[in-house]
Amino acid sequence: MMSGPLVVLAEFEAREDTVEAFLKACYQDAVRSVADEPGCLEFTVQRGEDDPNFVVLHEVYEDRAAFRAHETAPHFATFSNALKELGIVTKQIRFFHRQKG
């Protein structure tokens, strides 16, 4: 089994008419995750340079259990509802383990 912090890259394609509202939901989820979840080490929001409707969330958790706790947090439920309400399409969610060189 791999060890090291769990890194999550979540890629989304927003619609032009909803991207600003989606970014607001992403920022709120990021702020609450870092503030409220001891196992959330980092959470940043990126927007595509060539495609401003393409949004990537870069999240780092102590371990898989910390990520599972994130999925049960009230702010994650709010974020998930925003995905549905804004018609956001999940492109891909990938998991990695940070390695020391």
Summarize the structure in words.
Keywords: Monooxygenase, Oxidoreductase. This is Antibiotic biosynthesis monooxygenase. GO terms for molecular function: monooxygenase activity. This protein has 101 residues and is of the alpha+beta class. The chain has one domain: Alpha-Beta Plaits, CATH 3.30.70. The protein is 38% helix and 33% strand. It has three helices and four strands; from the N terminus they run E-H-E-E-H-H-E. A four-stranded antiparallel β-sheet has the order 2-3-1-4. A hairpin with a 6-residue loop joins strand 2 and strand 3. Helix 1 runs antiparallel to helix 3. The longest helix is centred in the first third of the chain and has 18 residues. It is globular. The protein starts with 5 loop residues before the first strand and ends with a strand. The model has no long low-confidence stretch (mean pLDDT 94).
Blueprint (SSEs and pairs):
Elements: E1 6-13, H1 19-36, E2 40-47, E3 54-61, H2 64-71, H3 74-85, E4 89-97
Antiparallel strand pairs: 1-3, 1-4, 2-3
Helix pairs in contact: 1-3
- CATH architecture name: 2-Layer Sandwich
Instruction: Give the neighbour order of strands across the main sheet.
Output: 2-3-1-4
The whole-number mean of residue pLDDT values reads: 94
Silhouette: globular
Number of helices: 3
What composes the largest sheet? 4 strands, antiparallel
CATH class: Alpha Beta
Compute the number of strand runs: 4
Poorly predicted runs are none
